[in-house]
Amino acid sequence: KRLGWAVVGLGSYAINQVIPGFLQAEESRMTAFVSGNPTKAKDLADRYGVAKTYGYDDFDKIAADKDIDCVYIVLPVGLHAEYTIRALKAGKHVLCEKPMASTVEECEAMVAAAKAANRQLGVAYRVHFEPLNTEVKRRCKQGELGDLRYITGDAGFNADPQYPPMKWRLDKPLAGGGSMYDIGIYALNGTLMMADQMPDTVSAVYAYPKDDPRFKTVEGGLNWRMTFPSGLSAQGSSSYCYAGGSRIKVFGASAAINMDPASDYYDNRANLHRGWDPGTPVRAAPPYTQFAAQVDGFSQAARSNTPHRTPGEMGLRDIRLIQAMYRSADQGGVVVKV
Ligand code: NAD
Fold first, then answer.
1. What are 226-247's pLDDT values in tens digits?
2. 125 is an active site residue
3. Distance CA 223, CA 65 (A)
4. Which residue, judged by its Cα, is nearest atom 44 of ligand 1?
5. Are 194 and 130 in contact (CB under 8 A)?
6. Domain limits at 199?
7. What pLDDT, on a 0 to 100 scale, did the predictor assign at position 242?
8. Number of domains in the chain
9. What's the pLDDT band for 288 if we cut at 50, 70, 90?
10. How far separated are the first and last CA of the chain, in Å rounded?
11. Per the residue annotation, which of 92, 98, 137, 249 is the catalytic one?
């Protein structure tokens, strides 16, 4: 039996990626849409054969809806904690979009609410369900590169303040943070996915034109570093000011893998080289999209009530690290122990 899902927030990512992902899913089906716009919710529900719609005011009524097992939060970041906790209190399992929430305290409250409700909480780090990323992780873990020495990761785009989904992203109460929260988190989370170990220090500097009118409340760019007890080090960047792209390069003692793009929706690429050679492509056959694989993975976690591959604790870890980076950058780049 497929688990039933409510999709909360019908914005651009929900409509263009999340909903189409469900159409390919094998263990998950959409049973409700939640939106502040009843006409949009009804139109989309009719189009996708979804039986029920809810508004934000009557959201708590989902508690009595037996057709909803899981709730997918696809709202602006500043609303993640509130709706995640309400859904957990309604007895549902929750997959929440990245970044998990605005503050460490909110993330901790979400993890605590999941424990209290005995329900699963996942953060939607989709590349953990993307075949090329999981193949690179497997090769790193199996030692194909030798001991890991250095990882770089960059993720950003040039933010158009007129694009509607960008408006809340440039407004701290709804965004939580700036480029590092929204897009740089891919390079940070991807670096830790490949490293499979925790850093002991972080440092960062802000990197964007300070007179840029887009960045009144959130940062437009951040360059960061991490060191690890093993001797591994990593550095990367996030930006709302450079041409869109994402890449991660993992250097081991005997080989390196370059992923570029690393966190695209549909077309990631990776190349393995052992020295100065041009290298060979890393291949992984996608069984179905990362969007479908992610919701099916969460349905399995919910069904067995065992932790999702990217649990709330991982989302909390990343917000803690980004907040430590902000503390470092606020002090001009001092090294912060984590
Ligand atoms: P969006 O602005 O297109 O959609 C947000 C939706 O929330 C809209 O339908 C809007 O009406 C609704 N909303 C409800 N209350 C609101 C309020 N008070 N202010 C503003 N909007 C409100 O944004 P999006 O790009 O779809 O992002 C939604 C979530 O998805 C975010 O958490 C974002 O980080 C995440 N996201 C993830 C990925 C990914 O690859 N995993 C990609 C894009 C976005």
1. 999 999 999 999 999 999 999 9
2. no
3. 46
4. 13
5. no
6. 130-286
7. 98
8. 2
9. confident
10. 43
11. 98
- Tell me the best of 8, 43, 75 to mutate to test the pocket of ligand 1, counting ligand atoms within 8 Å of each CB and taking the most: 75
Locate 269 and state its tokens: 């690429």
ipTM entry: 0.99
CA of 13 to the centre of ligand 1 (A): 7
CA–CA gap between residue 67 and residue 32 (Å, rounded):
8
Q: Is there a catalytic annotation at residue 186?
A: yes
Looking at residue 1, its pLDDT comes to: 87
- Give me the sheet containing 256-259, strands edge to edge: 280-281, 270-273, 256-259, 245-252, 148-156, 233-239, 221-227, 201-206, 336-337
Name the amino acid, one letter, at 68: I
Threshold 0.95, pTM exceeds: yes
Q: Are residues 110 and 135 in the same domain?
A: no
pLDDT over 90 at 214, yes or no: yes
Q: Are residues 143 and 224 in the same domain?
A: yes
Look up residue 78 and give its two tokens. Answer: 């500043």
Give the model confidence (pLDDT) of 35-72 as tens digits. Answer: 999 999 999 999 999 999 999 999 999 999 999 999 99
Residue 218 inside a domain? The answer is yes
